[in-house]
Write a structure and sequence with these properties.
Elements (H helix, E strand, L loop, with lengths): L4 E7 L7 E5 L12 E6 L2 E10 L15 E2 L8 H13 L4 H8 L17 E7 L12 H12 L3 E3 H7 L3 H10 L3 E7 L18 H16 L3 E7 L5 H14 L3 E5 L7 H11 L3 E4 L5 H13 L4 E4 L11 E7 L16 H12 L2 E6 L4 H8 L4 E5 L10 E6 L19 H12 L3 E5 L6 E6 L16 E3 L4 E3 L6 E3 L11 E6 L1 H11 L5 E4 L7 H12 L5 E4 L12 E6 L13 H13 L10 E6 L5 H7 L3 H14 L7 E9 L2 H17 L9 E13 L2 E10 L2 H14 L7 E7 L6
The chain binds adenosine-5'-triphosphate and zinc ion.
The site of zinc ion has 7 residues, from loops.
Amino acid sequence: MSAPVLASIAVGRPVRGEFTYTLPEELAGRLEPGQRVLVPFGRGTALGFYLGPASPPPGEKVRLKAVQRVLEDSPSLPKDLIALLRFAAVHYRYPLGEVIRGALPPGLSKAVEEKEAKPDVQHFAVALVNEVPPELSRAPAQSAALAYLLAVGGRAPLEEVAHAIPGARETLKKLATRGFAKLEEKTVEAGVKEGLIQGRPDHLTPEQAAAGVELRAALDAGAFQPFLLHGVTGSGKTEVYLRAAEHALTLGKGTLILVPEIALTPQLVGRFRSRFGSEVAVLHSALKDRERLFHWQALRRGDVKIAVGVRSAVFAPVNNLGLIVVDEEHDPSFKQEEKLRYQARDLAVVRGKQASAVVVLGSATPALETLENVNRGRYRLLELKRRVDDRPMPSIEMVDLRLERPREGVVTEEAPILSPPLLAAMEETIGRGQQVILFLNRRGHSTVLLCEVCGLSLKCSECDVCLTHHRSQSRVVCHYCGLAMPVPEQCLECTGPMLKLGIGTERVEAEVLERIPTARVARLDRDSATSAERLTEMLASFARRELDVLVGTQMVAKGHDFPGVTLVCVVMADTSLSIPDFRAAERTFHLLTQVAGRAGRGKDPGRVLVQTYNPDAEPVRRVLAHDFSGFSTQELEWRKALAYPPYSRMAAVRLEGEHPEQTASVARSLGNLVSRNMPPASAGVRLLGPALAPISRIRGKTRWQFLLKGPTHTALAPLLARVEAALAEVPSTVKVVIDVDPGAML
Ligand SMILES: Nc1ncnc2c1ncn2[C@@H]1O[C@H](COP(=O)(O)OP(=O)(O)OP(=O)(O)O)[C@@H](O)[C@H]1O
Ligand SMILES: [Zn+2]
């Protein structure tokens, strides 16, 4: 009897590693890696993924079980994706089967036979007008649906509009009967391309053209090549991505574009859609199961060759992948903060390597990790130093709040925050018929309520954070757990009067309305943008210039392209400086540069005013001087001195428990375990903590953490493996997670 054929299988259960099964004769030699199979597991059966042949397990003879059945004819997972998922499981220390299941659309993540996702017919809505007509002003739903369509290039799948705007199916029918839109049915076929070529500039800027030449050469070469596209705000990076994707298509290759947030980037989605029509699958976070499956299969078959999506789209099965773009690669939202804690930008580079693809990381403010990769010669640098049409960069001026006091005397709720120079600039801009963005990275009205007598501040009962006053809701709210309660009239401890300190966007909006009563003002933050519908409508109405002033949080700093904006005001540059995170300075610099970059993108030059109490703070000074390279050089030196990334690798072990004492003791014992097993000092591995997390309680759970720093991931791995092995002994009331390459330190 010949030896049985062995197969390596990832099992879709929370278990680590790969498992060896035997293959029944009728399957041997017939399976392809990435195919889903049914395997016996424990007392029942489980979904499995065939990964390839296996060699016999070492040691005593174990009786291996046999694969029961194949669930699909062709593999759901392309080869490069299997390699990526394997890497992710090892690197982020998460069970492989769970990693694979998490990447698959729901229809494929269960142990059932593959079903063809219907429809092969897709329904599209098409706008028949170029702007929302005035007669729709009393029909907000219709005007929102139409605004969405226009924002994404005039045409979009019905599913997508209905996702963005609840009830849009009915609304679009109404719009169709009124002749403002039409509904179409279209069979999705390979290579169909609709001729909606819209807004493709005839001439590239010299820098765009030069970048294009390099990217085309790299695509032609067909090998892995990572690039950083460092282009100042408004330099036309999107057009570089589009041309590269066009070239990939002519080579018959697929493209994957990752963006931070779809709802905030309808313009980018629209540019891809209008250039490539139904060649584009848009993968947003809240697709329905069936739609996810539909897109997965269409991409897997190669019927659709371009995917634009958020973080999780890094796992999209784009066929014959030639190009991966990560737009706004510095954005913290590329890091997933639960389950598989991956950094999609990093995985994009790994995937590019496995697929022999060209990778373009684009940003006006690249992450220091990315810059260091350029410095070490790992990534090639493409630069766009000038704005499109040689438009000038905005002038940036500082308003020193220590001198330009917006308020006199007492500190009260009514104390103004907009300084005289700021107000003057706003009035002047609005007077010229131009638009203003006001940025403050705090929502709510006042962010601290403090007793004037005993000094006690009002904190959440479940979390270690102050409650924020939301005046429009007449409530104080916890921004971590959502707890809300009426605003206390007096101090809960000593009945003293409460001062409302610390400003939020709501208060800035109120002050603008009070000081410039004629201004048309809207606020863009998570309180006002309660749905994708409202968000889109607000952005669209600002774009249509129905608003003069947009006040908002970092949501206004993202890649918007509003030509009418000539003034950007940073209400307080200091808010994010004091956060206990080694990336606080970098994050502040990025945010300020990005928001400043919203000014002067049209034909009129832009101006930026930055109010601050800390004009000497490094990130503030460097933003004022437009000095990206000065900032990054200095910050990299500091990181090097303290051995922070990119000069070290980090992992965080985070604990969360119901009982403070028990959590502390588990943290200490895991910490001890690590310090007992530390390699010699020369290895350069360091343990920081264990200590209470900077936010020591959330939702009533006590939080501890410790950090490991070392020269390489390999240096940290044995210690993390020890921690993992010890987890079996940890009581179930304490949850422990390992976070490799952590993002936020809170
Ligand atoms: N070659 C070109 N000729 C004319 N206009 C162009 C050209 N390339 C891009 N544009 C236009 O310039 C504007 C800015 O481009 P884009 O939004 O891509 O900038 P960006 O580099 O992504 O900026 P940010 O980083 O601020 O998001 C857009 O309105 C775009 O349509
Ligand atoms: Zn809370």
